[in-house]
Predict the structure.
Amino acid sequence: MNSNTQKIVGGSLLLAALIALPHFLKFHHQDLLIFLTINVLAVSSYRIVTLTGEWSLIHAVMMGVGGYTAALLFKYYEVGMWVTLPMAGILTAAVAALLCFPLFRTTQFYFLIGSFAAGEAIRLIWIQFVFPFGGTGGLSGVEPPMVGEIDFMESIPYYYLALSVVLLCLFILYLIENSRIGLTLHAVHWKAALAESVGVDTWRYRSLAFVIGSFFVGIAGALKVHYLGTITPNQFGVGFMVFILIWVIVGGYNKFYGPILGAVVLTLFDESIRGFAEVRPAIYGAVLILSILFLPLGLESIPSKFKAWSGIGKERDPLSLTDK
Amino acid sequence: MKITRRKLIRAAAAGTAMTGTLGLPTALFAGQKTVKLGMNIPMTGDYAPWGLPGLYGCQIVANDLNAAGGVKIGGDNYKIEIVAYDHAYDTEKAVQGYKKLVLEDRVKMVMMLGGSTVASVLPWARRKKMLTTTLLPSDITPKSDYLIATCESHPLYNVTGVEWLAENHPEAKTAVIVTNNDAEYGLQSAATYKAAFEVAGIKVVDVNLHGFDITDFAPIVSSVLAKKPDIFCMATSFYVTPLMEQLYHQGFKGKIISCTLDYYNEIIAKTSKDFVNGTIFQFPDFDDPALNQAGVSFPNPADFDAKFRKAHPTDWSAVSWEYPAILLNWLEGAKAAGSVEPTAVLSALKSNKNPNFVFGEGEWWGKDLWGQDNALVGRWPVVVVEDGKARIQEYRSVSSWLDRNKAVLIRHMKDLGLRTV
């Protein structure tokens, strides 16, 4: 079997498993699966921002921008979910485009801090303006639709809807990363000066990555708010941003599937230790420290480590400077 | 060790006796059904003090009821089982927890703290016709048929503290209000205090609505004390302890009134007994002799207080007795309905115009403000710290204040942009 066939077979099996999965789960685990699916889009869209080497602290808030867009359109203009989903992406991308002008005047650590400040400013707007944002209590009553006999308030139909949207978005993100734009984003990260010397506008490509990432995380926010029916500023605070960072770091960010792996494994791990309420944060913290110590390139590096250990094949370290 | 035949016979006899003893409770519970009651509450995170102590309290009450042979409902004998889910005040987890409790554990009632976590489960409460309770009646909407607030009528009871303060300290004529700027707790309480001060003829000279994650309260306290208030009011503040510390360090000599004063012993340790003495708030300790008065429906509060503090010496908070009070209220409804089914219990509770409220007879209220009479209000205690100990001064009627002044309250709620019908 050649590599492409392997990919098609593997992909088909994974898709079949994802379709069958909710039928084997308890009710509240079906919900967990929905939120996990949406969070997969959140981390994958964050990765495209990190491709340029910039790590922002505004991604969770941009998810909230998408969520609030959907909630406001639904509450005040009675716009249905089929329209609010793309509108959430478009408006979040528009907000990101505006933010590019102040934010991308900086890079690295300054960009990180600037993005955090911009995110907090947006969150404070949601909190301070009780109308239209509902203040800290947020907005509620943003329910998913009925389509014929299909009730999207029920877990399984909504899971299939979320899965379809997320898979489509992941496919587009994958195409972008493997296109000329994606290669340029990598170049902006690793060889910015060289890229500029051959006419690449690094400011524009950093901005583009930020806008694209925001578009997709905006859709993720809308998906979340329509299922939950409520949205509050706290859902998109520093706490959730830290989770996104942890998922990406623990999963790894050199491969497309790295952050997804991080989100899936850590979400399942967190749920598995739910019974140990009082020591759960300590266990979670210990696992994070251990994974950073022993897997600095993330969970995605396990297969190559295993191959190297077992001698099955030699794989080049993607970050190695000594390999040629 | 050598085992002789005599030793073997002795061991067998002892074992048989032991088995008989251990089997006794099983015999006691033979034929007994179990009714599960759910708690979808924060047990970890910032809101844990308003969740976990309630679980401890419910476990004590449930154990007592079960030890007494269970409860008789509709001709059946039931053992009560408390099933809890920690949502950590996260809406996603609140929905998951609600579904687990309702669809998997098959609980007959879900007790919750309130706020956005309740809002996120309301569509499911409606769909599954599940009796759900909140400590925040402001969660009630015209559509929330299955949501009731049978214990804490937050923040309506704050009016009783202001009324008592105005009568007992008529020299206090100006007040400042400090609280966190959130629509679920702080603003609701600030609006109620503003209404109560207006009715009592006390002028509010400043309202400071600060954000969360504040670490330095000195500037906030300095700024409001510059207005020379007679009264410092903390309206359901999440930051009572640091605010009290600042008041102490900045030498405030006026009256202090607060919705809660959780862990007031820690505040005394950080300030002084003399300073904290005289602080007015709304949540009694349950060893208070005034709880033995006629009308208080909580059974043997002092015993409950002692058991709680023995098992959880540092965990007593405002909610320690509130969730148990809701449990007892549910029990009253279930007995009246002769059923544990949620709709039957709700119907029985609502059809009683004056059901037993924790501090006496109550009445259903809320339609004028939130769209449904689903909040139980009655009399509420005014508590003052005396010689380092919380003591009930008297009970005052929330209902009669609302009858007289609800228009003022609704005006202040609207002024702060809060939802009203």
